[in-house]
Amino acid sequence: MEFTPITCHETLRPFIRNYWLLTSQCTATGTQQIFSNGAASLHFYLSQDITIDDGERHYRTALFNQNMQKVSVVSNKGTFNIFGAEFVPFCSRVFFPSEMDGIYASPEDLQDEEFIALSKNIHEAGSTEQRVTLLDDFFLKRLAQFPEGDINIERLSDVFDDIVPTDGSTAQPPHCQNEFSPADLASAACLSQKQFTRVFNKYVGMNPKSYLRLLRFHKALMEIQSSSDNSSLTHIAWSCGYYDLAHMTSDFRDICDFSPSELIQHGQELTETFGQKFSGLMKKKIKIENLI
Question: Of the candidates 131, 233, 231, 223, which has an alpha carbon nearest to the alpha carbon of residue 170?
């Protein structure tokens, strides 16, 4: 299995973390369990159609939102190639302003004719370079149509610079706290909590409390992966802002279906598709089955 990050056009970099290509072989019917990193992502399934969450409908292109819920992508035996893009958490609405009813949607679901045409052209393109050009052109056109100087984008940019540093370093909450609070984020945006929650929900797709819960989960996940001593799990739970190990275990099961101990056991089956260079603390993880 090979994962290749690809840089987007420089004008798009404040809004899009990166493009990427995943190439692998399914040795049998495979399930890729994806759990959220708080950012929307766009997937073009180049080599075969897939089904999602054991549904009967087949997808060649899917836009996944930032929802906390897990997603299971089912593929058939054979070549499995995905070309995709991952957005900065609050920026997918710049390019896809339509409301999504669920966790994922096809171009046809959104009734977006330009998106439908993009999907067709991406699948018909003969090379990765052509696909990158197609994506760049699509996103640059949509960016040009977005209102310049959107104050809420600027406010959220300031907030995310604090809580998810782009250089991959660990964010430091104020006042010697173990974690940020929704009030901290509202203060950074210079809005009341009520106003900030409304703006955050609109642009990020979840409320600030849920996002901070996800951030805490990923912080703990990083700590667990860097530690080889199971006895340190209680300390990790406390240092990441959980009340105790039971609280962290419950959170992990809700978000990714695994306890911290189970994730340690399955560590070799977890693929980090978006590393610190692109995503700071927030990383998307895929549990791989039957992929090589």
Answer: 223
The structure tokens 């190990």 sit at 245
Give bridge partners of residue 34 from the DSSP assignment.
71, 286
3-state secondary structure of 127: coil
- The residues, any chain, with a CB within 8 Å of residue 124's CB and separated by 6 or more, are none
In Å, how far from its chain's centre is CA 50? 19
Give the whole-angstrom CA distance, residue 89 versus residue 16. 9
Q: Which residue in 35, 18, 25 sits closest to 73, CA to CA?
A: 35
Tokens found for residue 143: 């960016």
Which among 23, 110, 24, 14 has a CA at the least distance from the CA of 65? 110
Question: Is the Cβ–Cβ distance between 13 and 140 less than 8 Å?
Answer: no
Q: Which residues are within 8 A (CB) of 126 and not within 5 positions of it... i.e. 6 or more apart? A: none
Count Cβ atoms below 10 Å from residue 282 Cβ, excluding itself. Answer: 25
Q: What pLDDT is recorded for position 284?
A: 44
Alpha-carbon distance of 46 to 245, in angstroms, equals 42
Q: For the chain, give percent helix, strand, coil, nearest 5.
A: 45, 20, 35
CB atoms within 10 A of CB 9: 16
Residue with tokens 């642009």: 203
Distance CA 131, CA 283 (A): 24
The residue ranges of DSSP E strands in the chain, in sequence order, are 2-6, 16-26, 30-35, 41-45, 51-52, 61-64, 71-75, 78-87, 104-105, 270-272, 285-287
Nearest 5°: the CA angle 257, 262, 268 is 105
Structure tokens at 30: 């495979």
> Residue 113 forms beta bridges with which residues?
none
- The rounded distance, in Å, linking the Cα atoms of 145 and 246 is 48
What is the per-residue pLDDT across 220-271, written as a single tens digit (0 to 9) for each?
887 887 776 655 889 889 888 898 999 999 999 988 888 888 877 765 455 5
